[in-house]
Amino acid sequence: MRDALRQARIEAADRTGVVVELRDAEVARLEILNEALDPLFGQIPEKVDLFDRGISQGDTPRLWIDVVAHVLMGRDKRIYRFVQDTRFGRIVIAESHDVVTIVDAVTDYVARRLLQREPPLVATPVTA
Hints:
Blueprint: H1 2-36, H2 38-42, E1 54-56, E2 62-64, E3 69-73, E4 80-86, E5 89-96, H3 99-117
């Protein structure tokens, strides 16, 4: 019995190590994406406070773009999944193994968010 318990503890420790390694790999891939997004976010004026980019270290690591959109790794831990939370549930904006594809999707998302926040330009008619 003692040997069986010892073997079970070793197996449990091995599984825990694998889980930690997978989680570290997820965070590393999100950090790579985060660095690839630096040029995009460097172009956004500092007075614009729509975006709060950062990696959360919870059970499921996420790269947050703003309060409703983030990137997480798919089940295989190799595919990036860019999602947005809406009133009607979560929608997938883009999915890819390629960082460039996700950077393009985030760029489109950021552009749309910036346009949504722009005050409408209204020309007042000149009356004589």
